[in-house]
Structures are given as C-alpha cells and as structure tokens.
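Notes from hallway chat w/ T.B., transcribed later so I don't forget. T.B. wanted the structure written out for a chain they're using in a teaching module, and asked if we could keep both sequence and structure tokens in one place. Agreed to drop them here.
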Amino acid sequence: MGAKAKLIRKPKRRIRYEAIAFLFFAVMGIFYACSMTGLKRKNYETSLKVQELQMQIADKKEEITYLQSQVYVLSARERIVSMVAKYGIKTNQDQVVILTETE
C-alpha cells in the first residue's frame, strides 16, 4: 500500500467581527470629522453675515436719527414763517385750522 497523499484544505475565510467593527468606527470617525469641519465653516460664514447685517442696521439707525433731526429743523415754525415773509406771501391766521388728536 503506498503512501497516501494528504489533501490540504484551504481554511475558509471567516469575517471577523472585530474587523467589521473597526471598519465601521473608522468610517464613522471620518464622517464625524468631515461633518464637524463643515458645520464650523458654516457657523463662521453665518456669524460673518450676522455681523454685516448688524453693521447695516446700525448705519440705518444713524441715518434715521439724522433724517428725523432734519425733519424737526425743516418743519420749525420760525423757518416756515421766515420763508413766507421772504417770498412775500401773506398769511391769513383766520384760515388756519389746528388739528388735535382725539382719543
């Protein structure tokens, strides 16, 4: 009887759970890092827009204050009377009607 040849079997590849878990956590870590970077960038851009809008609001408030003061100056009674006298317009006080606010 002769020597028998041994059959060598290749071991079946087993998927190890540790490798899958490591791969999963590595992918999730990369995803987390990318999302945090994106969110920080978006936060920075948003804060820049907010600062720009606050500056615009402050400028508009200054402009409103200036215009309100100009309205007060230009609508002063003395100024109107002096302009009327300058152009020779006669005022008739009997035709003046004063409107009052009623509650």
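Follow-up for T.B.: Residues 17-88 form one domain. Might be a good example for the class.
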